[in-house]
Amino acid sequence: MSTLTALSRRAQAVAPFLAMDVMAAAGARERRGEGVVHMEVGQPSAPAPRAVIAAAQAALADGRIPYTEALGLPALRARIAQHYAETYGVAVSPERVVVTTGSSAGFVLAFLALFDAGARIGVPRPGYPAYDGILRALDLIPQPLTLRAEDRYAPTSALVGAVHAAHPLSGLLVMSPANPSGTVIAPDRLAELCATARRLGLSFISDEIYHGLSYGVPTATALQFDEGALVINSFSKFYCMTGWRIGWMVVPETLVRPIERLAQNLYISAPYLSQVAALAAFDTLDEIVAIREGYARNRALLLDALPSLGFTDIHPVDGAFYLYADIARHTEDASAFCRRMLDEAGVAATPGLDFDPEEGGHHIRFSFAGSNAECAEAVARLKGWLRP
Fold it and tell me: CA-based Rg of the chain, rounded to a whole angstrom?
């Protein structure tokens, strides 16, 4: 006989991650033998680079897969620090690098280390839905920063100041390139946001998980403008290592030991096998650049085809591998639209309500992280479905 267990308030406060729900529905369709073009989740269809797989195979053959130090393998921490010098010209001590179980664990560690229950953190809207979910699960309050077309759908210092005046914040979280749009915060605007956070006494968290994936626009790390910023990144997107669950943080020196204590207790360490594999990822740029060129072709195809199909007012697709479009011409119910699109056209995409509970009912996000053939097939299916 089962015992009825009451749900915690935190568990009830966390909304479903709709992209994952769409993925589950698409999987059910595939198990019925029906084809699907996957554009619902931000997951590269390309495998991890060959050297990454070889490094993991070699470590596995060695036989012993141990714990590591909670902050990560020293060699990997040093290589990540070297990456900042090579890519951005920023000196980062390896001691400030924390290896995490994907960027998701990085957000949990950051929020726990920086904020007490009840703190209010500014987050962009539309934005990555798990920000809200993690914050609410930790009894923190996500405060929307509603993005505007006139600002290229990127946060501004004026917006942060206005929101802080109305709803005092403890921290500010930004993402560039952004999810769901791919929009990049220009370097000068990122510098202004860092300065504004310092002036207002806000902890500044920069999600840079899509760095390396941009199309003709410059990207900057917050560490170029504020060594006190907390930066979160991952091997998932640029290096095609989503399921390896390996990411990193760069944190101020004062947070290293507190975050280490949290990591020791929450998950001991990131997976050894994935850390060894990640160490090899930095030497695979030739493969990765070729994959990025494929994304660029997908981006061009969608930007050319989708507006004529009624997907309009597309946010600036500066980077990442997403396109976020208004579908008001078709519907005000993006969830129902996405269900029909999957059932009738076999194309899986994510309704905008995942990213914006207020305005997302007439928006949709397409991920173009698949192959060029898959992207072309999606366009052909949409044309046949929307133009019978």
Answer: 21
What is the predicted pLDDT for the residue at 1?
Answer: 47
Q: What angle do CA 159, 137, 274 make, to 5 degrees?
A: 95
pLDDT digits (tens, 9 = 90+) for 169-188: 999 999 999 999 999 999 99
* Lookup: tokens for 133: 């979910």
| Residue in 174, 75, 100 with CA at minimum distance from that of residue 131 | 174
Give the DSSP H/E element, type plus range, for residue 348.
strand 347-348
CA distances from 385 to 188, 309, 382 (A): 43, 10, 5
Burial 117-144 (b: 16+ CB within 10 A, else e): eebbbbbbbbbbbbbbbbbbbbebbbbb
Among the residues of the chain, which ranges form H helices?
Answer: 9-13, 18-31, 50-62, 74-88, 102-114, 129-137, 157-166, 187-200, 253-266, 272-281, 285-305, 334-340, 372-386
Residue ranges, the chain, pLDDT below 50: 1
Q: What pLDDT, on the 0 to 100 scale, is given for residue 141?
A: 97
Q: How many CB atoms lie within 10 A of CB 9?
A: 9
pTM to 2 decimal places: 0.95
